[in-house]
Hints:
alpha/beta
Amino acid sequence: MSMQNASKPRVPASVPVIVILLILTVAALAAFLLMRGSPASAGVTSSEAADSSSDLSFSETSSLTASSLTDSLPAESGVSSEAASGGSGDGSQPARTDAVDESYFNDAVFIGDSLTVAMGLYGYVDNDRVVADIGVNLDQIMENPYISTDAGDVTVLEAVRQKAPAKIYVTLGSNGIAWISADNMAEMYDAFLTALMEQNPDATVYLCSIPPVTSGKEASDSRYNNDQIVAFNQHVQELAQKHGTYFLDIYSIMADDSGNLGADVAEVDGLHLKASAYETIVDYFLTHTAQ
């Protein structure tokens, strides 16, 4: 493992992540109810309800390791091999290199939903660099004050503006994939990226594909479909090309041989990720940076 602090415990045993997520879930749901009138109109989906019931464990075991990562992206990810070998800010994946130091993230922000919240809660990135919340959805991201700050709740864009980052990682779409078409989500994503890039013209931006779900999740809830996720991720890569950003393929490093989320890195809900998954993701980020 190339991360500098891989041997250090990431989450104190005295602070169970599931307790924190339960508190965040209740607070987020209460805010949505007050603002929108009902969970359905607020965009709260079963993917968010799963936050309150998923068994976030502290397992550090995973069959996905740094040595298993490759620069060859599967055809189903929507990224051509030519794009994967590039890394010029044209929608391609940066070429793999030796891992940079984790200080690379000191001037970065990580935009996302509960999957990104957990990245901070597990200690793989500084919580102060996380601009994410349970329930963040592309259909409300422009106007909903999701992010709590010392000055009050603000939108994602305003929270990013306050931090003035040099690097921005964006992982959006897992909320909504069950009930918004890939094409419609891509249109919303395009509008958000246009505003984000105009606000942060000098930042290096990485657009991340969203991970698959487990085969069990697909079988138990047909709204969560990996074919739909692949279609959306193709749009994400196209948006990276359009906006001149980099593309990072989380889907591929989290997928098993069948293209599903690996059971060894999945929480019991089949959607969220164990701590070991974030170790793999962060290692992937640190070995695929813009040069």
